[in-house]
Amino acid sequence: MNTGPDGKRNIAEKGNSTGKSSVEDLFEEDPGFEVLKQVITKNTGFNCNQYKESHFRRRINVRVRATNSGSYAEYLKVLKKDPEEYRHLIEALTVNVSEFFRNPETYRIIEEEILPSVIKSKSEAMIKSIRIWSAGCASGEEAYSFAILLHEILNKDFDKYRISIIGTDIDTLSLEKARKGIYNESVMKNVDTSTRELYFTKKGEKYQISEQLKKIAHFKQHDLISGSGMSHFDIIICRNVMIYFKKEIQEHLHINFYRALNTGGYFIIGKAETLLGTANNLFKPYNTRERLYIKGTSGDIHGTGNKESK
Fold first, then answer.
1. Could you tell me the residue ranges of all domains in the chain?
2. Would you state the pLDDT for residue 3?
3. Is the CATH number 1.10.3210.10 carried by domain 104-295?
């Protein structure tokens, strides 16, 4: 291993024959890892033990490399000396990748089948409220994508409904971006020209979401695992979030989402994710290729299905 001019080990070397970078090899057996996790949890409330270790270690190593730390013990010293580093660490641990209408084929079904079905059932029951939960919402592109589709479908009837799209995330920086609703061109690739003109205002090189849609989208910090329960949703979408959690945590979240849905409500997960445990029998498949599921009218965990009030 090479050393720098100051005699410290250079951790930013090329990968080895195992396909791992040298920093990963170096830290594989570093006893400071467990100590670091305890310190992070104590000082931030971020529960490190709920994540798959391989994912968690990779995300921590991003900041270890960025601060030129030669070990987890050295990185702990960085955290102690510069509390601002905690903000960078949490941002790395909750890495968010999002864009408008991500996976267009999934949104095509949402637009053509799921939202019309929800609206139809509401109309028949004379219920004028629609509640959607974007769990792990990142900077809000997913929530606003639903808002755009609802406005396009309802058109003149849009204001006749009490629409609430709740976006939750653990990352406060992402939530701040969501509330501002200002986006770069990079996340707009699936938004056509007419939609941009109707729902966005061009500000220099950025796009500002319309105030009308901002009024129905509400963003708040919420820990999916330890946060308070939520309920009475018609649609819950949680894509590419649970895959980073341990299996037992995923099973727990699936049940929580099941309970949070109204009977007949839709549950949407990422294409790389699958239902686990009891939830696999509780949810009815709607489109397994796109990972769309329904909460049926029977089979509730405790036989106490959610009921809506008009």
1. 22-93, 104-295
2. 39
3. no
